[in-house]
Design a protein that fits this description.
Strand content: 25-35%
Strand order of the largest sheet: 13-12-11-14-15-17-16
Mean pLDDT: 96
Helix content: 25-40%
Largest sheet: 7 strands, mixed
Low-confidence stretches: none
Distance between the termini: 52 Å
Structural class: alpha/beta
Shape: globular
Number of strands: 17
Length: about 375
Amino acid sequence: MYRNNLVSIEGVAEDGGIADIYDESGTYIATGFLSTVSHIVVRILSTDKSVEIDRSFFERRIREAWLYRKIVERKNLSNCRIIYGDADGLPGLVVDRYNDVLSVQMICKGMEVRKDMIYAILKQVLAEDGEVINGIYERFDVKARLKEGLEVYKGKCGDGDFSSDQIISENGLKLHVDIENGQKTGYFLDQKNNRMIVRNLSSGMRVLDCFTHTGGFALNAAIGGAKAVTAVDVSAVALEEGRANAKLNGLENVSFVQADVFDYLDTLSVGDFDFIILDPPAFTKSRRTIDHAYHGYLSINEKAMRILRHGGYLATCSCSRYMETELFEKMLREAAMNAGVILKQISVTQQNGDHPVLWPMEETSYLKFFLFQVLEKR
């Protein structure tokens, strides 16, 4: 519930406490965490007034979330998102697992004041399945915490003996994860299934992975039998991690290039690559900058369509929820028209299943992954 919907607060108002929402006629709507400082006044936990928000409530929600991952992430349970905020009925909480370490984000006071209880439940639920957790790393270095009046920081929680540098196995591919300094909670777990799509398509191809970061798509293309893979990113640090990942897997068919992707694409000729992957960072994190983002996506997609060999393949993504699917498709049609090509759609997917989309809450849907064959006009 947003502040512009608030008429009044009655009773004792304690940030992080539990509050009921009523409409002006006195009809009960929902119950959730209260914040008197945030634009989000209440983060909803339940729409059933009879439900008590106690330890048993949070244990039920965490058990449900874990059971769901045991079904949808059978092959990657040691590296997956265990809790995805509102999609799991636990607003303001993200928990990612990297082997025996949980990397946690909390962005609301309601979760923060209950964190010891949350951590104890997580360890208990996983231990019951023989899944031992040796440490918790708090990635509380997100600006959203400032909106709730919370401190921004990161570090180990407690005295657990564990390393923040982990080597995970993602569908058989070994990857270094820097929990302390890596993106988000250490790594982009949300593209696992999409990286497998790239792996399965890459055999014998010359592949270009743009915005490669630490090499997620590039390495999957390489292990999938690509003839040669070029991985491009502007970050020297990320590329060094990518090289280390390639060495870890014994992959020699990948080269890493430090460059601005927009500039790099301008240096290429038609037919240089059979398969291009575009996985840029979010070009917009608000609706105010959506026009700028649209033109950024348009530019790289048009360039890629022009460069691909005729009949080549394009995987293109947006991780911004503000770049809605309809607008992204409009951009792709415009890019194809400008490039003078026809797009033959192979598949459209979203984020991995451990980042579920809760239909009543549009904010949980953000990632779009389109796969095309790019054809000459006929």
